[in-house]
Amino acid sequence: MNTGTTRDASGYPHDRAYSPRTLAVHGAQLFDPVTGAVSTPVYQSATFRHPGLGQSTGFDYTRVTNPTRKALEDAVALLEKGTYGLAFSSGMGAVSAVIKLFRPGDHLIVSEDLYGGTYRLFNVYYRTYGYAFSWVDTSDFAKIEAAMRSETRGIFIETPSNPMMKVTDINRAADLIHKRGGLLVVDNTFLSPYFQNPLERGADMALHSGTKYLAGHNDALAGLIVHNSIALEEPLRGVQKSEGATLGPFDSWLTLRGLKTLAIRMERQNENAGRIAGWLRAHPLIEKVFYPGFSDHPQYRLSREQARGDGGMVSFYLKNPAHAPALLRSVRLILFAESLGGVESLLTYPLAQTHQAIPEAMRLSTGVNEKLMRLSVGIEDADDIIADLEQALIVCAREQP
Asked: For strand 346-348 and strand 335-336, is the pairing parallel, antiparallel, or unpaired?
């Protein structure tokens, strides 16, 4: 029956605005426009037929663009409230593309507390090409201002930071760099577009390791960039096409499928993390818990202003660093593994894993030491996660009082 409701090319009716929960499920199109398929097809083709000389279906070669990847790019752009989305073969591929927007001699201010792979990419590789980087506690705005130079062209932040959960004021950082005609890049991996939209607060680009919360099932590698600028679109597409670090059709489909449950996963992980962080804080073997949902977190009010949730990440210090090996060995439900954001709870030892590439002095100054653990909380029952931590900590106390 024809209800008279108008629809655009996406298939969405025009009679209402849809919530992020709904948009995550359906993406930018309710169904495949060619076949009507509810699940976006995997267009596992390297090349596409031209209708004639000088004619194109819009898809010519998968390194340049692919229908499955485009569906993912459009869906994430919709959730990030941006115009343009680009999908890469990993989060690091996305970060590398962003740096190509700058030129040798340019200076960037970077959160000192961030993923070690980003530090390695910037400091080991791009520094040799003439880029300059200052590593700053960006949760302290005065330190950002003090690090500014005449040649500063960018600010790159993680908020909340990895792994110390510091929160940076996106609005203030954007205003500061825009006065210089520069760009603000926000790695939004920890909160996902479900809980935080940096573009709405002035950021030029929101960046994701799509491997984490977007895909959500520890079965795909992906990187995403979302932005609103026509001036940035051609250069970023040029890098994507020329360097070739584009996301393949099947991983695009896996990430798109994972995206459908983003809302319910993030809500459960947010709820679980809050309970577990509180439990850890009260445990006698835990020295300190880093979690932006605590009312005494240094940036608690800011976090409440610019984010709609606290996320599923919790970091903590053991009182006795000698307990670290036993804890990692003794967890049974929680998996000792190097990633985050999936449905399974994972425990990571940043000193030896995610932040090993960062020099020791810098690691220690930011708080990444032998006592630090990072917990990515999954969607399991919170009581089961807590019980696993409890039994593992009992083992720690028994083996190393």
From this structure: parallel
Residues 6+ apart with CB under 8 A from 139: 159, 161, 166, 167, 168, 298, 299
Catalogue the E-assigned strands of 199-249: 205-209, 223-227
Give the structural domain span for 124: 20-259
Catalytic residue among 187, 204, 251, 310: 187
Of the listed 84, 115, 126, 131, which one is catalytic? 115
Annotated active-site residue in 153, 166, 212, 374: 212
Establish whether 291 is a catalytic residue: no
pLDDT at 399: 87
β partners of residue 288: 317
Rg over CA atoms, the chain: 22
Which token pair is 58?
């819009």
In whole angstroms, what is the distance from residue 326 CA to residue 395 CA?
7
Check if 251 is active-site.
no
What's the half-sphere exposure (Cβ side, CA atoms, 13 Å) at 386? 15
| Residue 212 pLDDT > 90 | yes
Considering the domain architecture, whether residues 71 and 143 belong to the same structural domain is answered as yes
**In the sheet that 313-318 helps form, which strands lie side by side, from edge to edge?**
286-290, 313-318, 372-376, 346-348, 335-336
Are 44 and 88 in a shared domain?
Answer: yes
| Dist. CA 307–CA 309, nearest whole Å | 6
User: Is 63 part of the annotated catalytic residue set?
Assistant: yes
Known active-site residue 175: no
Residues 184, 230, single domain; the answer is yes
Average pLDDT value over all residues in the chain:
95
Contacts of 28 (CB under 8 A, 6+ apart): 10, 71, 74, 75, 77, 78
Burial (CB < 10 A; 0-12, 13-18, 19+), residue 337, is middle
Structure token digits, residue 6: 């108008």
pLDDT at site 287: 98
- DSSP code, position 198: G
Length of the chain: 401
Same domain membership, residue 177 and residue 42? yes
- Are 71 and 178 part of one and the same domain? yes
How many separate domains does the chain show? 2
0.90 surpassed by pTM = yes
Please report, rounded to a whole number, the percentage of residues in the chain having pLDDT higher than 90: 88
